[in-house]
Write a structure and sequence with these properties.
Chain lengths: 219, 361
Protein backbone atom coordinates (compact mmCIF):
# COMPACT_ATOMS: atom_id res chain seq x y z
CA UNK A 1 0.00 0.00 0.00
CA UNK A 2 2.90 2.31 0.87
CA UNK A 3 4.06 2.08 -2.77
CA UNK A 4 0.75 1.47 -4.51
CA UNK A 5 -0.79 4.72 -3.32
CA UNK A 6 1.95 7.00 -4.80
CA UNK A 7 1.86 4.99 -8.04
CA UNK A 8 -1.92 5.34 -8.28
CA UNK A 9 -1.68 9.05 -7.49
CA UNK A 10 0.99 9.54 -10.18
CA UNK A 11 -1.13 7.62 -12.70
CA UNK A 12 -4.26 9.71 -12.05
CA UNK A 13 -2.47 13.06 -11.91
CA UNK A 14 -0.35 12.14 -14.94
CA UNK A 15 -3.43 11.46 -17.06
CA UNK A 16 -5.11 14.61 -15.74
CA UNK A 17 -1.95 16.55 -16.64
CA UNK A 18 -1.99 15.39 -20.27
CA UNK A 19 -5.65 16.22 -20.88
CA UNK A 20 -5.47 20.06 -20.86
CA UNK A 21 -3.41 19.94 -24.07
CA UNK A 22 -6.36 18.39 -25.85
CA UNK A 23 -9.35 19.68 -23.86
CA UNK A 24 -9.80 23.46 -24.18
CA UNK A 25 -13.10 23.54 -22.27
CA UNK A 26 -13.16 26.25 -19.60
CA UNK A 27 -14.31 23.89 -16.86
CA UNK A 28 -11.35 21.59 -17.37
CA UNK A 29 -8.85 24.43 -17.91
CA UNK A 30 -9.95 26.04 -14.63
CA UNK A 31 -9.59 22.72 -12.84
CA UNK A 32 -6.12 22.28 -14.34
CA UNK A 33 -5.05 25.81 -13.38
CA UNK A 34 -6.25 25.18 -9.85
CA UNK A 35 -4.31 21.94 -9.71
CA UNK A 36 -1.13 23.38 -11.16
CA UNK A 37 -1.10 26.81 -9.54
CA UNK A 38 -3.02 26.63 -6.26
CA UNK A 39 -2.09 23.08 -5.32
CA UNK A 40 1.59 23.52 -6.19
CA UNK A 41 1.63 26.84 -4.31
CA UNK A 42 0.24 25.21 -1.17
CA UNK A 43 2.70 22.37 -1.53
CA UNK A 44 5.58 24.84 -2.01
CA UNK A 45 4.56 26.76 1.11
CA UNK A 46 4.96 23.62 3.21
CA UNK A 47 8.12 22.58 1.36
CA UNK A 48 9.81 25.95 1.91
CA UNK A 49 9.44 25.54 5.67
CA UNK A 50 11.11 22.12 5.43
CA UNK A 51 13.79 23.62 3.15
CA UNK A 52 14.60 26.47 5.53
CA UNK A 53 14.71 24.12 8.51
CA UNK A 54 17.15 21.94 6.56
CA UNK A 55 19.34 24.93 5.68
CA UNK A 56 19.44 26.16 9.27
CA UNK A 57 20.22 22.69 10.57
CA UNK A 58 23.13 22.26 8.15
CA UNK A 59 24.66 25.60 9.17
CA UNK A 60 23.98 25.07 12.86
CA UNK A 61 25.79 21.75 12.59
CA UNK A 62 28.66 23.42 10.75
CA UNK A 63 29.11 25.98 13.53
CA UNK A 64 28.77 23.33 16.23
CA UNK A 65 31.41 21.08 14.71
CA UNK A 66 33.62 24.03 13.66
CA UNK A 67 33.88 22.71 10.11
CA UNK A 68 35.93 24.52 7.46
CA UNK A 69 34.77 28.15 6.99
CA UNK A 70 32.21 27.75 9.78
CA UNK A 71 32.32 31.51 10.45
CA UNK A 72 30.42 32.18 7.23
CA UNK A 73 27.50 30.20 8.58
CA UNK A 74 26.96 33.02 11.08
CA UNK A 75 26.64 35.43 8.16
CA UNK A 76 23.92 33.21 6.67
CA UNK A 77 22.00 32.82 9.92
CA UNK A 78 22.19 36.54 10.75
CA UNK A 79 21.26 37.46 7.16
CA UNK A 80 18.32 35.06 7.27
CA UNK A 81 17.08 36.42 10.59
CA UNK A 82 17.47 40.09 9.59
CA UNK A 83 15.81 39.72 6.18
CA UNK A 84 13.10 37.55 7.75
CA UNK A 85 12.24 40.22 10.34
CA UNK A 86 12.38 43.08 7.81
CA UNK A 87 10.35 41.17 5.23
CA UNK A 88 7.69 39.88 7.62
CA UNK A 89 7.26 43.07 9.66
CA UNK A 90 8.29 45.77 7.19
CA UNK A 91 6.76 44.43 3.95
CA UNK A 92 8.41 44.36 0.55
CA UNK A 93 8.77 48.12 0.17
CA UNK A 94 8.41 49.17 3.80
CA UNK A 95 4.64 49.45 3.65
CA UNK A 96 4.04 47.61 6.93
CA UNK A 97 4.48 48.74 10.52
CA UNK A 98 8.23 48.18 10.98
CA UNK A 99 10.11 51.36 9.98
CA UNK A 100 12.52 50.57 7.14
CA UNK A 101 14.05 54.02 6.71
CA UNK A 102 16.44 55.68 9.13
CA UNK A 103 17.84 59.13 8.30
CA UNK A 104 17.12 58.65 4.59
CA UNK A 105 18.76 55.21 4.55
CA UNK A 106 16.35 52.60 3.19
CA UNK A 107 16.66 48.98 4.20
CA UNK A 108 13.35 47.47 3.06
CA UNK A 109 13.48 44.04 1.38
CA UNK A 110 13.25 45.46 -2.14
CA UNK A 111 16.20 47.80 -1.51
CA UNK A 112 18.25 45.03 0.11
CA UNK A 113 17.48 42.73 -2.81
CA UNK A 114 18.39 45.30 -5.45
CA UNK A 115 21.57 46.45 -3.69
CA UNK A 116 22.92 43.18 -2.31
CA UNK A 117 21.47 40.16 -4.12
CA UNK A 118 21.49 41.59 -7.63
CA UNK A 119 25.15 42.83 -7.55
CA UNK A 120 26.29 39.56 -5.95
CA UNK A 121 24.45 37.57 -8.66
CA UNK A 122 25.99 39.78 -11.34
CA UNK A 123 29.44 39.19 -9.85
CA UNK A 124 28.99 35.42 -10.09
CA UNK A 125 27.67 35.79 -13.62
CA UNK A 126 30.71 37.90 -14.56
CA UNK A 127 32.97 35.02 -13.52
CA UNK A 128 31.51 33.14 -16.44
CA UNK A 129 33.67 35.15 -18.86
CA UNK A 130 36.86 33.84 -17.22
CA UNK A 131 35.55 30.29 -16.96
CA UNK A 132 34.60 30.47 -20.63
CA UNK A 133 38.14 31.48 -21.56
CA UNK A 134 39.72 28.59 -19.62
CA UNK A 135 37.14 26.11 -20.96
CA UNK A 136 37.71 27.31 -24.53
CA UNK A 137 41.44 26.86 -24.13
CA UNK A 138 40.91 23.21 -23.20
CA UNK A 139 38.24 22.57 -25.83
CA UNK A 140 40.18 24.04 -28.70
CA UNK A 141 43.39 22.04 -28.27
CA UNK A 142 43.76 20.02 -31.45
CA UNK A 143 44.27 16.57 -29.95
CA UNK A 144 42.03 14.54 -32.24
CA UNK A 145 40.21 14.87 -35.54
CA UNK A 146 37.02 15.99 -33.78
CA UNK A 147 38.74 18.65 -31.68
CA UNK A 148 40.66 19.86 -34.75
CA UNK A 149 37.36 20.25 -36.61
CA UNK A 150 35.93 22.09 -33.61
CA UNK A 151 38.94 24.38 -33.51
CA UNK A 152 38.68 25.12 -37.24
CA UNK A 153 34.93 25.84 -37.03
CA UNK A 154 35.43 28.06 -33.99
CA UNK A 155 38.25 29.93 -35.76
CA UNK A 156 36.10 30.56 -38.85
CA UNK A 157 33.16 31.77 -36.77
CA UNK A 158 35.25 34.00 -34.50
CA UNK A 159 36.97 35.63 -37.46
CA UNK A 160 33.78 35.63 -39.57
CA UNK A 161 31.79 37.76 -37.15
CA UNK A 162 34.48 40.46 -36.94
CA UNK A 163 34.19 43.59 -39.12
CA UNK A 164 37.66 42.66 -40.38
CA UNK A 165 36.34 39.43 -41.96
CA UNK A 166 35.16 41.22 -45.10
CA UNK A 167 38.69 42.45 -45.72
CA UNK A 168 40.12 38.90 -45.57
CA UNK A 169 37.49 37.38 -47.85
CA UNK A 170 34.02 38.48 -48.84
CA UNK A 171 32.87 34.85 -48.42
CA UNK A 172 34.10 34.50 -44.84
CA UNK A 173 31.10 36.14 -43.03
CA UNK A 174 28.59 34.13 -45.07
CA UNK A 175 30.56 30.91 -44.49
CA UNK A 176 30.59 31.61 -40.73
CA UNK A 177 26.85 32.24 -40.85
CA UNK A 178 26.36 29.03 -42.84
CA UNK A 179 28.13 27.02 -40.13
CA UNK A 180 25.87 28.60 -37.51
CA UNK A 181 22.64 28.18 -39.51
CA UNK A 182 23.03 24.77 -41.13
CA UNK A 183 25.31 22.22 -39.37
CA UNK A 184 24.82 23.84 -35.96
CA UNK A 185 21.02 24.05 -36.21
CA UNK A 186 20.83 20.53 -37.70
CA UNK A 187 22.71 19.08 -34.71
CA UNK A 188 20.60 21.08 -32.27
CA UNK A 189 17.37 19.87 -33.87
CA UNK A 190 18.58 16.27 -33.81
CA UNK A 191 19.19 16.58 -30.07
CA UNK A 192 15.82 18.30 -29.60
CA UNK A 193 13.99 15.41 -31.33
CA UNK A 194 15.68 12.97 -28.98
CA UNK A 195 14.79 15.13 -25.98
CA UNK A 196 11.13 15.34 -27.02
CA UNK A 197 10.81 11.58 -27.52
CA UNK A 198 12.78 10.87 -24.35
CA UNK A 199 10.48 13.20 -22.43
CA UNK A 200 7.36 11.39 -23.67
CA UNK A 201 8.89 7.98 -22.93
CA UNK A 202 9.98 9.05 -19.42
CA UNK A 203 6.52 10.45 -18.68
CA UNK A 204 4.85 7.27 -19.95
CA UNK A 205 7.15 5.07 -17.86
CA UNK A 206 6.42 7.09 -14.73
CA UNK A 207 2.66 7.33 -15.35
CA UNK A 208 2.39 3.57 -15.92
CA UNK A 209 4.56 2.81 -12.89
CA UNK A 210 7.30 1.11 -14.94
CA UNK A 211 9.91 3.63 -13.80
CA UNK A 212 10.11 3.46 -10.02
CA UNK A 213 13.59 4.76 -9.30
CA UNK A 214 12.00 7.78 -7.59
CA UNK A 215 10.43 5.31 -5.16
CA UNK A 216 13.76 3.64 -4.46
CA UNK A 217 13.38 1.10 -7.28
CA UNK A 218 11.47 -2.17 -7.37
CA UNK A 219 10.57 -3.92 -4.14
CA UNK B 1 -30.99 64.34 -59.59
CA UNK B 2 -27.39 64.52 -60.91
CA UNK B 3 -26.14 64.96 -57.33
CA UNK B 4 -27.83 61.75 -56.15
CA UNK B 5 -26.53 59.88 -59.23
CA UNK B 6 -22.93 60.99 -58.52
CA UNK B 7 -23.28 60.30 -54.79
CA UNK B 8 -24.43 56.78 -55.63
CA UNK B 9 -21.55 56.34 -58.07
CA UNK B 10 -18.88 57.36 -55.53
CA UNK B 11 -20.53 55.82 -52.43
CA UNK B 12 -18.25 53.77 -50.19
CA UNK B 13 -18.89 50.04 -50.61
CA UNK B 14 -19.24 47.99 -47.39
CA UNK B 15 -17.56 44.62 -46.81
CA UNK B 16 -19.68 41.69 -48.00
CA UNK B 17 -20.56 38.18 -46.86
CA UNK B 18 -20.05 39.04 -43.19
CA UNK B 19 -20.52 36.04 -40.96
CA UNK B 20 -19.87 35.43 -37.27
CA UNK B 21 -19.30 32.08 -35.64
CA UNK B 22 -18.11 30.60 -32.38
CA UNK B 23 -14.27 30.47 -32.45
CA UNK B 24 -13.49 26.77 -32.80
CA UNK B 25 -11.19 24.72 -30.53
CA UNK B 26 -11.15 27.16 -27.65
CA UNK B 27 -12.38 27.38 -24.10
CA UNK B 28 -15.25 29.68 -25.06
CA UNK B 29 -15.42 33.44 -24.64
CA UNK B 30 -14.65 34.28 -28.27
CA UNK B 31 -16.55 34.82 -31.53
CA UNK B 32 -14.79 35.15 -34.89
CA UNK B 33 -16.16 37.55 -37.49
CA UNK B 34 -15.11 37.10 -41.11
CA UNK B 35 -15.92 39.08 -44.24
CA UNK B 36 -14.93 39.68 -47.82
CA UNK B 37 -13.05 42.93 -48.27
CA UNK B 38 -14.84 46.01 -49.55
CA UNK B 39 -14.31 46.76 -53.28
CA UNK B 40 -12.84 50.04 -51.99
CA UNK B 41 -10.36 48.25 -49.71
CA UNK B 42 -7.32 49.96 -51.23
CA UNK B 43 -8.59 53.43 -50.38
CA UNK B 44 -10.14 52.88 -46.94
CA UNK B 45 -8.54 53.25 -43.52
CA UNK B 46 -9.86 49.96 -42.22
CA UNK B 47 -12.86 48.14 -40.83
CA UNK B 48 -14.85 48.89 -37.68
CA UNK B 49 -16.57 46.00 -35.95
CA UNK B 50 -19.91 46.73 -34.28
CA UNK B 51 -21.71 44.46 -31.88
CA UNK B 52 -25.28 44.33 -30.60
CA UNK B 53 -25.85 42.43 -27.37
CA UNK B 54 -29.27 40.78 -26.84
CA UNK B 55 -31.01 42.92 -29.50
CA UNK B 56 -29.74 46.26 -28.12
CA UNK B 57 -27.96 49.09 -29.93
CA UNK B 58 -24.79 48.40 -31.92
CA UNK B 59 -21.58 49.57 -30.28
CA UNK B 60 -18.03 49.71 -31.62
CA UNK B 61 -15.92 46.82 -30.27
CA UNK B 62 -12.91 46.77 -32.56
CA UNK B 63 -10.98 48.09 -35.54
CA UNK B 64 -8.66 46.40 -38.01
CA UNK B 65 -6.68 47.85 -40.89
CA UNK B 66 -7.57 47.57 -44.59
CA UNK B 67 -6.88 44.23 -46.22
CA UNK B 68 -7.86 42.32 -43.08
CA UNK B 69 -10.76 39.87 -43.32
CA UNK B 70 -11.33 38.70 -39.75
CA UNK B 71 -11.59 39.81 -36.15
CA UNK B 72 -11.87 37.86 -32.91
CA UNK B 73 -14.15 39.38 -30.31
CA UNK B 74 -14.13 38.58 -26.59
CA UNK B 75 -17.59 37.52 -25.53
CA UNK B 76 -19.67 36.14 -22.70
CA UNK B 77 -20.81 32.57 -23.40
CA UNK B 78 -24.22 33.21 -21.83
CA UNK B 79 -25.12 36.07 -24.22
CA UNK B 80 -26.15 36.24 -27.86
CA UNK B 81 -24.56 38.75 -30.23
CA UNK B 82 -25.19 40.26 -33.67
CA UNK B 83 -22.32 41.86 -35.61
CA UNK B 84 -21.92 44.42 -38.38
CA UNK B 85 -18.68 45.42 -40.08
CA UNK B 86 -18.23 48.91 -41.49
CA UNK B 87 -15.68 50.12 -44.01
CA UNK B 88 -14.20 53.44 -42.80
CA UNK B 89 -12.94 56.19 -45.08
CA UNK B 90 -12.29 59.61 -43.57
CA UNK B 91 -15.51 60.22 -41.66
CA UNK B 92 -17.62 58.12 -44.02
CA UNK B 93 -18.70 54.62 -43.00
CA UNK B 94 -20.45 51.90 -45.00
CA UNK B 95 -22.11 49.22 -42.89
CA UNK B 96 -22.59 45.62 -43.88
CA UNK B 97 -25.75 43.64 -43.27
CA UNK B 98 -26.01 42.36 -39.68
CA UNK B 99 -25.05 38.74 -39.08
CA UNK B 100 -27.45 36.16 -37.68
CA UNK B 101 -27.29 35.91 -33.85
CA UNK B 102 -24.33 33.96 -32.54
CA UNK B 103 -23.03 32.90 -29.13
CA UNK B 104 -19.69 31.48 -28.03
CA UNK B 105 -19.20 28.16 -26.29
CA UNK B 106 -16.44 25.93 -24.91
CA UNK B 107 -15.24 22.86 -26.80
CA UNK B 108 -14.28 19.56 -25.18
CA UNK B 109 -11.72 18.58 -27.80
CA UNK B 110 -9.21 20.67 -29.72
CA UNK B 111 -9.34 19.20 -33.22
CA UNK B 112 -6.16 21.06 -34.23
CA UNK B 113 -4.28 18.85 -31.74
CA UNK B 114 -5.67 15.62 -33.23
CA UNK B 115 -2.47 14.98 -35.24
CA UNK B 116 -0.40 15.44 -32.09
CA UNK B 117 -2.64 13.04 -30.19
CA UNK B 118 -2.38 10.42 -32.94
CA UNK B 119 1.42 10.83 -33.01
CA UNK B 120 1.65 10.43 -29.22
CA UNK B 121 -0.60 7.34 -29.31
CA UNK B 122 1.51 5.71 -32.05
CA UNK B 123 4.74 6.51 -30.21
CA UNK B 124 3.38 5.26 -26.88
CA UNK B 125 2.20 2.05 -28.62
CA UNK B 126 5.74 1.46 -29.91
CA UNK B 127 7.16 1.89 -26.42
CA UNK B 128 4.53 -0.42 -24.91
CA UNK B 129 5.24 -3.01 -27.60
CA UNK B 130 8.93 -3.14 -26.70
CA UNK B 131 8.16 -3.14 -22.98
CA UNK B 132 5.90 -6.15 -23.65
CA UNK B 133 8.70 -7.83 -25.61
CA UNK B 134 11.05 -7.26 -22.68
CA UNK B 135 8.42 -8.72 -20.33
CA UNK B 136 8.35 -11.87 -22.46
CA UNK B 137 12.08 -12.20 -21.88
CA UNK B 138 13.45 -10.92 -25.18
CA UNK B 139 17.01 -9.66 -24.74
CA UNK B 140 17.24 -6.07 -25.96
CA UNK B 141 20.56 -4.59 -27.01
CA UNK B 142 21.19 -0.99 -26.00
CA UNK B 143 24.16 0.93 -27.32
CA UNK B 144 27.00 1.73 -24.96
CA UNK B 145 26.73 5.08 -23.17
CA UNK B 146 30.19 5.95 -21.85
CA UNK B 147 28.91 8.53 -19.38
CA UNK B 148 26.78 5.94 -17.65
CA UNK B 149 29.43 3.23 -17.73
CA UNK B 150 31.59 5.70 -15.82
CA UNK B 151 29.12 5.89 -12.92
CA UNK B 152 30.54 2.73 -11.31
CA UNK B 153 34.06 4.05 -11.82
CA UNK B 154 33.13 7.39 -10.24
CA UNK B 155 31.50 5.76 -7.20
CA UNK B 156 34.42 3.30 -6.87
CA UNK B 157 36.96 6.09 -7.04
CA UNK B 158 35.16 8.11 -4.37
CA UNK B 159 35.06 5.01 -2.15
CA UNK B 160 38.77 4.34 -2.59
CA UNK B 161 39.67 7.95 -1.85
CA UNK B 162 37.30 8.15 1.10
CA UNK B 163 35.73 11.28 -0.31
CA UNK B 164 32.05 12.14 -0.88
CA UNK B 165 30.11 12.31 -4.15
CA UNK B 166 28.32 15.51 -5.11
CA UNK B 167 25.00 15.33 -6.96
CA UNK B 168 23.53 18.60 -8.25
CA UNK B 169 20.17 18.72 -9.99
CA UNK B 170 20.59 22.31 -11.14
CA UNK B 171 17.95 24.99 -10.84
CA UNK B 172 14.95 23.18 -12.30
CA UNK B 173 11.59 23.01 -10.57
CA UNK B 174 10.00 19.73 -9.63
CA UNK B 175 7.76 19.60 -12.72
CA UNK B 176 10.62 19.99 -15.24
CA UNK B 177 11.19 16.79 -17.17
CA UNK B 178 14.98 17.08 -16.71
CA UNK B 179 14.49 17.28 -12.93
CA UNK B 180 12.21 14.23 -13.04
CA UNK B 181 14.85 12.30 -15.05
CA UNK B 182 17.45 13.47 -12.55
CA UNK B 183 15.34 12.08 -9.67
CA UNK B 184 15.38 8.67 -11.37
CA UNK B 185 19.17 8.76 -11.75
CA UNK B 186 19.61 10.02 -8.17
CA UNK B 187 17.72 6.94 -6.94
CA UNK B 188 20.12 4.60 -8.76
CA UNK B 189 23.25 6.51 -7.72
CA UNK B 190 22.08 6.64 -4.09
CA UNK B 191 21.77 2.84 -4.16
CA UNK B 192 25.30 2.48 -5.51
CA UNK B 193 26.78 4.90 -2.96
CA UNK B 194 24.87 3.05 -0.25
CA UNK B 195 26.35 -0.28 -1.31
CA UNK B 196 29.86 1.20 -1.03
CA UNK B 197 29.01 3.27 2.07
CA UNK B 198 30.14 6.42 0.30
CA UNK B 199 28.75 9.77 1.37
CA UNK B 200 26.37 11.44 -1.12
CA UNK B 201 25.87 15.23 -0.94
CA UNK B 202 22.80 16.66 -2.67
CA UNK B 203 22.43 20.46 -2.48
CA UNK B 204 19.12 21.54 -4.06
CA UNK B 205 17.79 24.85 -5.30
CA UNK B 206 14.05 24.38 -4.81
CA UNK B 207 12.22 23.43 -1.62
CA UNK B 208 9.91 20.94 -3.37
CA UNK B 209 12.85 19.37 -5.22
CA UNK B 210 14.64 19.16 -1.87
CA UNK B 211 11.80 17.24 -0.18
CA UNK B 212 11.49 14.81 -3.10
CA UNK B 213 15.28 14.30 -3.36
CA UNK B 214 15.51 13.62 0.36
CA UNK B 215 12.79 10.96 0.16
CA UNK B 216 14.41 9.36 -2.90
CA UNK B 217 17.81 9.04 -1.20
CA UNK B 218 16.15 7.72 1.95
CA UNK B 219 14.07 5.17 -0.01
CA UNK B 220 17.09 4.03 -2.02
CA UNK B 221 19.10 3.34 1.14
CA UNK B 222 16.10 1.51 2.59
CA UNK B 223 15.74 -0.58 -0.60
CA UNK B 224 19.31 -1.86 -0.34
CA UNK B 225 18.77 -2.60 3.35
CA UNK B 226 20.92 0.23 4.73
CA UNK B 227 18.49 2.89 6.04
CA UNK B 228 21.09 3.70 8.73
CA UNK B 229 23.33 5.28 6.06
CA UNK B 230 20.88 8.07 5.34
CA UNK B 231 22.18 11.36 6.68
CA UNK B 232 19.52 14.04 6.40
CA UNK B 233 22.15 16.79 6.53
CA UNK B 234 23.64 15.59 3.25
CA UNK B 235 20.51 16.35 1.24
CA UNK B 236 19.65 19.96 1.83
CA UNK B 237 18.05 23.09 0.42
CA UNK B 238 20.39 25.97 -0.42
CA UNK B 239 18.56 28.78 -2.23
CA UNK B 240 16.42 29.32 -5.28
CA UNK B 241 18.64 32.16 -6.49
CA UNK B 242 20.55 30.92 -9.55
CA UNK B 243 24.00 32.32 -8.86
CA UNK B 244 23.79 32.04 -5.10
CA UNK B 245 23.14 28.33 -5.69
CA UNK B 246 26.18 28.18 -8.02
CA UNK B 247 28.31 29.88 -5.34
CA UNK B 248 27.09 27.46 -2.66
CA UNK B 249 27.79 24.35 -4.79
CA UNK B 250 31.20 25.77 -5.74
CA UNK B 251 31.87 26.18 -2.02
CA UNK B 252 30.95 22.55 -1.36
CA UNK B 253 33.31 21.41 -4.14
CA UNK B 254 36.20 23.47 -2.79
CA UNK B 255 35.68 22.56 0.88
CA UNK B 256 34.56 18.93 0.74
CA UNK B 257 36.64 18.03 -2.36
CA UNK B 258 34.23 15.39 -3.70
CA UNK B 259 35.89 12.65 -5.75
CA UNK B 260 33.00 12.66 -8.22
CA UNK B 261 30.58 15.37 -9.29
CA UNK B 262 27.26 14.67 -10.99
CA UNK B 263 25.55 17.63 -12.65
CA UNK B 264 22.34 16.10 -13.88
CA UNK B 265 19.13 18.03 -14.47
CA UNK B 266 18.13 21.50 -15.62
CA UNK B 267 20.97 24.00 -15.86
CA UNK B 268 21.39 27.47 -17.25
CA UNK B 269 24.37 29.84 -17.18
CA UNK B 270 25.65 28.36 -13.91
CA UNK B 271 26.55 25.12 -15.74
CA UNK B 272 30.04 26.28 -16.71
CA UNK B 273 30.71 27.92 -13.32
CA UNK B 274 29.96 24.60 -11.62
CA UNK B 275 31.72 22.37 -14.14
CA UNK B 276 34.90 24.48 -14.31
CA UNK B 277 35.17 24.71 -10.52
CA UNK B 278 34.67 20.94 -10.32
CA UNK B 279 37.34 20.37 -12.98
CA UNK B 280 39.79 22.51 -10.99
CA UNK B 281 39.36 20.21 -7.95
CA UNK B 282 40.33 17.17 -10.04
CA UNK B 283 37.03 15.34 -9.52
CA UNK B 284 35.66 12.95 -12.12
CA UNK B 285 32.65 14.76 -13.58
CA UNK B 286 29.51 13.38 -15.21
CA UNK B 287 26.95 15.85 -16.51
CA UNK B 288 23.63 15.56 -18.28
CA UNK B 289 21.01 18.06 -19.31
CA UNK B 290 18.31 18.61 -21.91
CA UNK B 291 19.31 22.27 -22.28
CA UNK B 292 20.94 22.31 -25.71
CA UNK B 293 22.66 25.64 -25.08
CA UNK B 294 24.41 24.32 -21.96
CA UNK B 295 25.64 21.07 -23.49
CA UNK B 296 28.81 22.58 -25.05
CA UNK B 297 29.87 23.85 -21.63
CA UNK B 298 29.43 20.45 -20.04
CA UNK B 299 31.13 18.66 -22.94
CA UNK B 300 34.11 20.97 -22.53
CA UNK B 301 34.49 20.90 -18.77
CA UNK B 302 33.24 17.44 -17.77
CA UNK B 303 34.69 13.98 -18.34
CA UNK B 304 31.39 12.54 -19.56
CA UNK B 305 28.21 14.22 -20.75
CA UNK B 306 24.78 12.72 -21.22
CA UNK B 307 23.45 14.47 -24.29
CA UNK B 308 19.71 15.04 -24.61
CA UNK B 309 17.82 11.76 -24.53
CA UNK B 310 20.72 9.91 -22.83
CA UNK B 311 19.59 11.77 -19.73
CA UNK B 312 16.23 10.01 -19.92
CA UNK B 313 17.80 6.65 -20.71
CA UNK B 314 20.23 6.83 -17.79
CA UNK B 315 18.04 5.33 -15.09
CA UNK B 316 17.22 2.30 -17.30
CA UNK B 317 20.84 1.90 -18.34
CA UNK B 318 22.16 1.98 -14.78
CA UNK B 319 19.47 -0.26 -13.30
CA UNK B 320 19.54 -2.71 -16.27
CA UNK B 321 15.83 -3.21 -15.62
CA UNK B 322 14.47 -5.05 -18.73
CA UNK B 323 11.14 -3.18 -18.83
CA UNK B 324 12.91 0.17 -18.78
CA UNK B 325 15.31 -0.96 -21.50
CA UNK B 326 12.24 -1.84 -23.60
CA UNK B 327 11.10 1.77 -23.34
CA UNK B 328 14.48 2.97 -24.68
CA UNK B 329 14.10 0.63 -27.64
CA UNK B 330 10.69 2.20 -28.32
CA UNK B 331 12.26 5.66 -28.20
CA UNK B 332 14.88 4.60 -30.74
CA UNK B 333 12.22 3.27 -33.10
CA UNK B 334 10.37 6.59 -32.73
CA UNK B 335 13.52 8.40 -33.81
CA UNK B 336 13.91 6.12 -36.82
CA UNK B 337 10.29 6.86 -37.84
CA UNK B 338 10.78 10.63 -37.50
CA UNK B 339 14.11 10.55 -39.31
CA UNK B 340 12.62 8.50 -42.17
CA UNK B 341 9.58 10.79 -42.43
CA UNK B 342 11.80 13.89 -42.49
CA UNK B 343 14.11 12.40 -45.12
CA UNK B 344 11.19 11.42 -47.38
CA UNK B 345 9.48 14.79 -46.89
CA UNK B 346 12.73 16.66 -47.60
CA UNK B 347 13.37 14.62 -50.75
CA UNK B 348 9.82 15.22 -52.02
CA UNK B 349 10.15 18.91 -51.17
CA UNK B 350 13.51 19.23 -52.95
CA UNK B 351 12.58 17.20 -56.03
CA UNK B 352 9.04 18.47 -56.62
CA UNK B 353 9.06 21.81 -54.82
CA UNK B 354 5.80 20.66 -53.23
CA UNK B 355 5.29 22.32 -49.82
CA UNK B 356 5.19 18.99 -47.93
CA UNK B 357 5.43 20.54 -44.49
CA UNK B 358 2.27 22.57 -45.10
CA UNK B 359 0.36 19.27 -44.85
CA UNK B 360 1.23 19.16 -41.16
CA UNK B 361 0.05 22.68 -40.38
Amino acid sequence: MKRRFPLLLVFILGILGIMPYFVPHGVYQNFDNGLRNDFIRILSAFAIILGLVSLMRVHHDKIKRKRENWQYSYVLIVGFAVSGVIGLLGGIEGEMFLPTTIAGFHFDIQTLYLNIMVPLGSTMFALLAFFMASASYRAFRARSLESSLLLSAAFVIMIGVLPLADKISTHLPSFAQWIMDIPNVAAKRGITFGIALGGIATSLKIILGIERSWLGGKE
Amino acid sequence: MTFFFLAGLFALAPPTDVHAFDTPNDGGGAVTIRWHISPDDETIEGYEIYRSEGGGDFELVGFVGSGRTSYEDDTDDSKEYVYKVAALQNSQTAYSEPTPPVHSKSQWFDTTSANLLIGVIIFCSMILYFINQAKKGKVLHIRKISGLDAVDEAVGRATEMGRPILYSMGIGLVDYIATIASFNILGEIAKKTGQFETSLIVPTSDPVVYTVAREIVKESYTTIGRPDLFNQDNVYFVTDSQFAYAAAVDGVMLREKPAANFFIGYFKAESLILAETGASTGAIQIAGTDQVTQLPFFVTACDFTLIGEELYAASAYISKEPLLLGAIKGEDLGKVVIFTALTIASLIGILTRFPVLSLFE
